[in-house]
Sequence to fold (133 residues):
Amino acid sequence: MTLLLDTHAWFWAIEAPENLGPQCRVALESPDNELFVATISTVEFGQLQASQRIEFKGTLESWVRRGTEALGLQTVTLSQAIALLAYALPGRFHKDPADRLLVATAIHHGFMIVTADDRILTYPHVMAMDARR
Fold:
């Protein structure tokens, strides 16, 4: 399986693994699965840090580097195709730009998104795994 971690799922996996459910932990630890994060998650972390809603040990850059290495994550970058899809998603989806980009990334690449966001989990046009299970 190829998994795309939502921003909070990435954070939980590194800083609060007790928030992840047992099925999710197994999926993240399985050598059979490829794990990805999207560059928009780094943007979200930067916004959270700038608004003092999150604090990292060290710099954001060092946390991202450690966080990707610790989990063996690959980074999927934002492309024009993903940016366009984010605002052409099928059906109804909420307006949060980061969530739209994450969902568009998952759809574009055929990834399953790992999230605890009920709006994403119930969106029928993307494969999703509940990070809490």
About this structure: The first strand starts at residue 2 and ends at 5. The chain has a mean pLDDT of 96. The CA atoms of residues 13 and 20 lie 7 Å apart. Residues 97-109 form the longest helix (13 residues).
